[in-house]
Amino acid sequence: MRWRYILYVVGILSLFFGLTMIVPLVWGLYYRDQSVVPLLISMAITIVSGLALVLFFRDSEAESISQREGMAIVTVGWTAIGFFGALPFYFGIEHCAFVDAFFESVSGVTTTGSSILTNIEAVSKGILFWRSFIQWLGGMGIIVLSIAILPFLGVGGMQLYKAEVPSPIPDKLAPRIRETAMLLWKVYFLFTLVQVILLMLGGMDLYDALCHAFTTMPTGGFSTRNASVAHFNSIYFDGVIIIFMILAGINFSLHYQMLRGKPLAFWKDAECRFFLGAVLVLTLIVSLNIHKSVYDSLGDAFRYGFFQVASIITTTGYVTADYGKWPAMSQLILFLCMFLGASAGSTGGGMKCLRIMLCFKYSYKELFSMIHPRAVSHVKISGVAVPQDVIRSVLGFLALYTGLFAICSVILAGLGVDFITAVSAVAATIGNIGPGLGMVGPTDNFAQIPILGKWLLIWCMLLGRLEIYTVIILLVPEFWRK
Fold it and tell me: What does the pLDDT look like over 323-342, one tens digit per residue?
């Protein structure tokens, strides 16, 4: 492990991250609010720290990055970004403890959307913009963006891409990894721009349109309002955000194919069909369940049911209704959606539909083998046989995911948190959802969680965003041996 080289790359990432603080600073200057000085201080600390790492370790060998080094760079880099991202909250929000600032920052860059802010609308515009902007950067991945830049600095990218891209099988859209990263970001930027325009056509001002587009496409869910999207009480806004949440929950390589004139790519992809089918079926079930019991109108039941299913299954976490007061069946479906998650290769979190599909198909294959022990069968996705090493990796991931969920839930409950809150808080953070149930429900926040519980949930957010393996492997003794 070349730690000098790892810290050199982390320094580059930190330096770039510090420069991005110029964007919220512009909004702070425009509104002439109290965010200007905190942002300037935070920017100075971040840039100086990044520059110090780059200058101190600049003589490190720029050889190809090993898989272990790629994982270390991503984990250390994401933690460093979470730390520096916390500075504007720490300096810019009155009486904000550093653990709360760090929680809010990690929740942002991991696109989780869980918050400790009790009065969002009281926070200055510049800080709130930073809160949304870091979700947008974290959605497609600051590291994936950097892959397009790092080759000019002599830093390789494939190992970073494998460690960062949220997919069991990373899709290379172009022969060069830098070109792939650029294509992903172009699609991401285009969709964000279209959503901003549509929100403004509905009457939303530029500031709110940018903030909500910046937190929809990364499936983050941070809003500028205490009541989230419910504040606007607009069917039009609900519809626009639903569309873009679902688009963000689909593999971005399919969007690229669509933009190249292949709209049937969505239908041909088995995971996309599974994801869209799950959204449709679960929406119908929830809508029928809350009809009459919560909403007298079937139209209202469908409107709010559709929004919340789309929001939770894509791991965005926006809220238009207090689903904590819905029937138990609907709450349980939404809770299970936290584990299902969006498509692989999307900005969504959770286990991912592709892994769930592979698990189901593998289970069926085992049942089939018990009936026909001599038959030769394969697990296939879209007609293509899935390699055994991929299946083994997926099963290991699912085992780790459920095991870590159980362990963290027990620990959180041991800190004095009630059962419903403990299990939903861990599910919401490790799945990068945002709101949960109980004390962390759609109308509440994570401010009441004990300090040790907040540190635990910060770790859960990093676990979920970096796909478990990238973080947990650092705890394996063999990882550190030559």
Answer: 999 999 999 999 999 999 99
Q: Which two tokens stand for residue 394?
A: 């997926």
Phi and psi at 5, nearest 5°, equal: -70, -40
Q: What is the dihedral of CA 119, 123, 78, 437, to 10 degrees?
A: 10
How many Cβ atoms are within 10 Å of 56's Cβ, its own excluded? Answer: 13
Contact (Cβ atoms closer than 8 angstroms) between residue 309 and residue 282: yes
Q: What is the pLDDT of residue 74?
A: 85
Higher pLDDT, 175 or 449: 449
Asked whether the beta carbons of 208 and 233 are under 8 A apart, the reply is no
For the residues of 333-399, what is the DSSP string, one character each?
HHHHHHHH-S-TTSS--SS-HHHHHHHHHHHHHHHHHHHSTT-----EETTEEPPHHHHHHHHHHHH
From CA 282, how far away is CA 410, in angstroms rounded? Answer: 29
pLDDT of residue 385 exceeding 80: yes
Q: What is the pLDDT of residue 432?
A: 94
Residue pointed to by tokens 């004390």: 439
> In this predicted structure, what is the pLDDT of residue 393?
84
CA distances from 389 to 167, 386, 395 (A): 14, 8, 10
Alpha carbons 245 and 462: distance in angstroms, whole number = 21
Cα atoms in the Cβ-side hemisphere of radius 13 Å centred on 90 = 19
Measure the CA–CA gap between 138 and 218, rounded to whole angstroms.
7
Region 454-476: mean pLDDT is 90
How many Å apart are CA 421 and CA 110, to the nearest integer?
21
Please tell me whether residue 291 adopts helix, strand or coil conformation.
Answer: strand
First to last CA, the chain: 8
> Would you place residue 153 in the very low, low, confident or very high pLDDT band (cuts 50, 70, 90)?
very low
Instruction: Provide the b/e sequence for 327-350 (b: ≥16 CB within 10 Å).
Output: eeebbebbbebbbbbbbbbbbbbb
Q: What is the pTM of this model?
A: 0.92
pLDDT at 176: 65
